[in-house]
Amino acid sequence: MRVAIAGAGLAGLSCAKYLVDAGHQPVVLERRNVLGGKVAAWKDEDGDWYETGLHIFFGAYPNMLQLFKELDIEDRLQWKEHSMIMNQPDNPGVYSRFDFPDIPAPLNGVLAILRNNNMLTWEEKIKFGIGLIPAMIQGQSYVEAMDQYSWTEWLQKQGIPERVNDEIFIAMAKALNFIGPDEISSTVILTAMNRFLQERYGSKMAFLDGAPPERLCQPMVDYITERGGEVLLEHPLQEILLNDDGSVRGYAIQGLGDRAAYTLEADAYVSAMPVDPLKLILPEPWREMPYFKQLDGLEGVPVINVHLWFDRKVTDIDHLLFSRSPLLSVYADMSNTCKEYANPDRSMLELVFAPAADWIGRSDEAIVEATMAELYKLFPDSLREAKLLKSKVVKTPRSVYKATPGRQQHRPSQETPIANFYLSGDFTMQRYLASMEGAVLSGKLTAQAIARDGAKSRGDRDLALAAQR
Ligand SMILES: Cc1cc2nc3c(=O)[nH]c(=O)nc-3n(C[C@H](O)[C@H](O)[C@H](O)COP(=O)(O)OP(=O)(O)OC[C@H]3O[C@@H](n4cnc5c(N)ncnc54)[C@H](O)[C@@H]3O)c2cc1C
């Protein structure tokens, strides 16, 4: 089957990869001139990379890890010590660590929490542990049911002290969805906690060894094209054209440069676009259908990724750091963590600026100034002498869907009520939230659905032909 896929983010590329594996011919159509969507990156005038987002891979990403294996690029994942490291805003320059011993889960996680003595008191640890028991015993069905509560509401319901939120979960909520614990659905944090506590290496982190478009997306493109598929950049889907019965007749592709507009016809069609542009492009006759109407409940959350190049080393930490600052979320010194960005003499800090709603409309200069002011509070000594050489700010006004309470019921399946139209993307329903793992899994599920439906319609056709004979 020929399958047209709009969007060359991880979901669209994963869908195409698993379609070629099943013997089909996908054509991926990407609006921009860069692969990767939310993992896209660019080189500046000095040849230095800057990215849409600081990206971390977790041990609890089975589909992503399987994909690396299938592409034969597992050596590109740079695994770090099994730890979580947090700044201590009240104690500048000092870090608090949760170190996971190499023993089976959940013991390793329990020990990591118990052995950390500079954030939570024993009473707080015990109350938190007791509060988590229903999630550990009842598993995912409990976790899904908790989507009605924000994380702060859930903590109150479980009798867990407010300070646990301040110490740990403001940072965790911002890292997972770029919003605070008063806004985030408890399903999101409980899902992450469940994976981290139930899998021995679930919370172990890896950095890619270079920029995602070259080091992860390009191998996917090579795999797809070597097996008969195509990936076309600067081919924006402009309109979904319909047959009289409401099924898709073709994708109208906008002309760009010397290339004229054209219509691409295929046997099946996929949108692997983010939910916000998808909603804008939905054909009029589909809009009132309950399946598509549910998408009104999903909307991308703003986030900003900041890059700061210094004239010297400002940290020696080869890991992700949770800043626990009001303006910033996680960050890393990429000159230590990433092979392609490595520099023994100079630091490049990559920082996620969140929540970003109040800042997304501000100038890059104001954002860099605010980021530097936060950093001075976190480690004044190492920054005092350092000179900021240059900076780069990447704003994403609508990134992953904002996971406030009640969003789970708005997440659509990969199969739609339209026989030859499918959805892919991190927002579609799969058990890995809005993440790279979720995007890769959604693409795989879409490819499976297409292959299944294709086999079924071939079977129906064979039966009909047999009946005619
Ligand atoms: C700052 C930041 C940090 C993050 N950190 C992490 C992390 O540490 N770990 C993690 O797992 N996840 C992280 N994520 C989330 C992760 O990047 C996303 O969940 C994932 O990449 C989404 O993939 P996707 O394919 O679903 O969507 P996208 O990547 O958004 O891809 C959609 C594609 O569709 C294209 N498109 C849009 N309109 C059209 C059109 N009309 N025609 C053709 N193409 C179109 C877009 O250009 C884009 O390429 C982070 C995200 C951000 C923004």
Describe the structure.
Strand 12 and strand 13 (262-264) form a beta hairpin. The longest helix is centred in the C-terminal third of the chain and has 33 residues, at 436-468. The protein has 15 helices and 20 strands. The chain has 469 residues and is an alpha/beta fold. It starts with a strand and ends with a helix. The protein is globular and about 80 Å long. The protein folds into three domains: 2-41 and 62-70 and 211-298 and 403-468, 3-Layer(bba) Sandwich (FAD/NAD(P)-binding domain), CATH 3.50.50.60; 81-203, no CATH class; 302-396, Polyamine Oxidase, Chain A, domain 2 (Alpha-Beta Complex), CATH 3.90.660.50. The strands form five sheets. The chain has a seven-stranded mixed β-sheet with strand order 8-7-16-17-18-15-19. A five-stranded parallel β-sheet has the order 10-2-1-14-20, with helices on one face. Flavin-adenine dinucleotide binds next to helix 1, strand 15 and helix 15.
Please give the count of helices. 15
CATH architecture of the largest domain: 3-Layer(bba) Sandwich
Q: Poorly predicted ranges (pLDDT <50, ≥5 residues)? A: none
Distance between the first and last residues' Cα: 25 Å
- Taking Cα atoms only, what radius of gyration do you get, to the nearest Å? 23 Å
User: What is the CATH topology of the largest domain?
Assistant: FAD/NAD(P)-binding domain
The major β-sheet equals: 7 strands, mixed
Tell me the total number of β-strands. 20
- Numbering strands along the chain, what is their spatial order in the largest sheet? 8-7-16-17-18-15-19
Strand content is: 15-25%
What's the overall geometry?
A: globular
- Small molecules in complex: flavin-adenine dinucleotide
Proportion of helical residues = 25-40%
Tally of structural domains: 3
CATH superfamily heading of the largest domain:
FAD/NAD(P)-binding domain
Mean of pLDDT: 95
CATH class value of the largest domain: Alpha Beta
What structural class is derived from the secondary structure elements? alpha/beta
